Amino acid sequence: MTHDARRLALTMGDAAGIGPEIIVRAIASGAAGPCVVVGSVDVMRRATAQSGLLLPVALLDAPDDAVPPDCVPVWQPPALPAGLGDLVMGQVQATAGAAAACCIEAAARLALAGQVAGIVTAPIHKEALAASGVHHPGHTEMLQALAGAPAVRMMLANGELRVVLVTIHVALRRAIELLDFDAVLQTLRIVQGAAVRWGQPRPRIAVAGLNPHAGEGGLFGDEELRFIAPAIAAAVAEGIDARGPFAPDTVFMRARHAPGHPGEFDIVVAMTHDHGLIPVKYLGVEHGVNVTLGLPFVRTSPDHGTAFDIAGRRPADARSFEAAIRMARQLAG
Amino acid sequence: MTHDARRLALTMGDAAGIGPEIIVRAIASGAAGPCVVVGSVDVMRRATAQSGLLLPVALLDAPDDAVPPDCVPVWQPPALPAGLGDLVMGQVQATAGAAAACCIEAAARLALAGQVAGIVTAPIHKEALAASGVHHPGHTEMLQALAGAPAVRMMLANGELRVVLVTIHVALRRAIELLDFDAVLQTLRIVQGAAVRWGQPRPRIAVAGLNPHAGEGGLFGDEELRFIAPAIAAAVAEGIDARGPFAPDTVFMRARHAPGHPGEFDIVVAMTHDHGLIPVKYLGVEHGVNVTLGLPFVRTSPDHGTAFDIAGRRPADARSFEAAIRMARQLAG
After folding, report:
1. Which residues pair with A207 in a beta bridge?
2. Interface-testing mutation among B170, B282, B303, B304, with chain A (most A C-beta atoms within 10 A)
3. pLDDT at A3
4. What confidence score (pLDDT) does residue A303 get?
5. Co-location of B274 and B299 in the same domain
6. Number of domains observed in the structure of chain A
7. Could you tell me which chain A residue has the CA closest to the CA of B277?
8. pLDDT attached to residue B4
9. Residue B275 and residue A275: Cβ atoms within 8 Å?
């Protein structure tokens, strides 16, 4: 046993999607660094062959076994379903969903036990997950349940911008109803806690308003006055460097870190999915990384899905997955 | 009389703000081209002196009088209030509001009569406008009333992106209530009509949805299914190249025109103020231009306000105003 504290667990994702391929590409390019793939040896062998990469796949007996050089190190969770080598690429299959869930659960247990420095998850397909009988809609909810975390938040990050969302996959009308003092303050506490964990004790957190011009003093909506500003004040009273609420249309520009443009803030909290994701994605999705905040371990993922339309047919782009690995290493310290 | 069909009317804006100064700078830099300033000679002389630019101010008897070279050509509307040279910089003053309104009205009449190719408006202060007894909240509403236009829309544009907003300065909650089939279809018709006017007979118009992932088939909100998609279909039936609804978080990235990244669309229609303005402003506000669509003439303005905090104290940045002039010339053809 040669425990490597810097080893990341890479979950293979849906075996019918591009997940196994982008894992192989990230390892082949050297971008992955010390890691263990939590997945199926058959699936990873097929992905290696399909990618045209002459990289051996090594089966580890235990997740912290020594890894031979220049190979794809795979640890198979004991509960992994059989027959995964026969899956059809690009199709929703319950077995693929069950295998993906099994790998996520096994990786979470490794992270909770401190056996890996963090988890990077390859994409899963939510219909396949549901078909396998898993009632969680996605990674985030599964990991939250496995870790027993009271609340989590999604952070999207690239080289320029880190954005944390208060609400995510709900109708905009419903998002407005879900927003309140507690949702904003809880987000600020989660951001602060995560930043401390990754070694940034006092990040400058900007809070974007909900309404045009952040409500312009109540003229265009009162959410800023009623609970966003009070939640910021409560966070400040707890020692959090939270500022705002700022006009949504200029706060991301102000926070942007680019050559010759030092950002004014380290993280922006956005009230809605699209206020936050429009600026993160504007310059391209290749480098976007999804980070789950509020878990007791580091978890990142690429900002794209299983790409069933190209899986096994055309080469997949591993850049976002590689960026997710880099981000996980950075956050794991 | 030497009527120059390419002459633009530049309204001086609030005389206590940076409007007169950025006009002088745009003329001095050569960026303005053929133009006539609709404003006060006293105000423009003071702005020239404060800017340290040795440029004579020439008073024209009529807006289409010949303009001597290398000067700031000013035409004073007959109804212009007196005493404007004594205004205090950086303060809300009813006289400044009245003068700004007078210049806007005079410029609109010139444009309606075909005496100028278009209008570029320097910033006004809405409190000063209100203090002067004008009941319109801003330029757009004043110009719409003067032109008798049934509906107008705001377009924000820079070198990469052109975005038209269905709703603007209202609470986000209220914006969702205001959206319907007619609001979306009317926007598409206004965009199409404006594009034809500026010589683009069939622009590729992308419509951004309202909800995350454009509602994901009704899972996250039904506005896309209920009226956005039907309004797009109705526009297509009228011969408009409207497409969507697309996920708000990626449509602006897809529409972006940049070196090596030809945009997929010419114009994006956004349902809300901040969905549209976050991407336009993300890379900086210096080059953003506001264009009013739906008027029978071209009208542009810079994407900033009167900047009372620096007016007359520190040099103002004329780049957005110069971009507004360039855009007006481009749209006037």
Report:
1. A269
2. B282
3. 55
4. 87
5. no
6. 2
7. A249
8. 67
9. yes
With a CB-CB cutoff of 8 Å, which residues 259-288 of chain B face chain A?
A: 272-275, 277-285
Taking residue A304's Cβ as centre, other Cβ atoms within 10 Å add up to 18
Nearest-CA neighbor of B219 among A70, A296, A314, A174? A174
Check if B160 contacts A (Cβ < 8 Å): no
Same domain, A23 and A145: yes
What pLDDT, on a 0 to 100 scale, did the predictor assign at position B44?
A: 97
B304: how many CB neighbours lie within 10 A of its CB?
A: 18
Domain assignment present for A250: yes
Q: What is the pTM of this model?
A: 0.91
pLDDT at B274 > cutoff 70: yes
Instruction: Return the amino acid letter for A162.
Output: R
Give me the CATH number covering residue B173: 3.40.718.10
Enumerate residues 198 to 257 of chain A having a beta carbon within 8 A of any beta carbon in chain B: 210-213, 215-216, 219-223, 248-250, 252-253, 256
Closest of B63, B87, B85 to residue B74, by C-alpha: B63
Could you tell me the two tokens for A101?
């869930």
ipTM: 0.90
Nearest CA in chain B to A275: B275
- Give the model's pLDDT for residue A1: 43
Q: Which regions of chain A are under pLDDT 50?
A: 1
Helices (H), B148-286: 172-178, 181-197, 223, 229-237, 248-255, 273-282
Give the neighbor-by-neighbor strand order of the sheet with A35-38. A57-60, A72-75, A35-38, A8-11, A118-121, A298-302, A289-293, A153-157, A162-165, A267-270, A205-208, A242-246
Q: Which residues in chain B touch residue A215, judged by CB atoms under 8 angstroms apart?
A: 171
Which residue from B minimizes the CA distance to A278?
B249
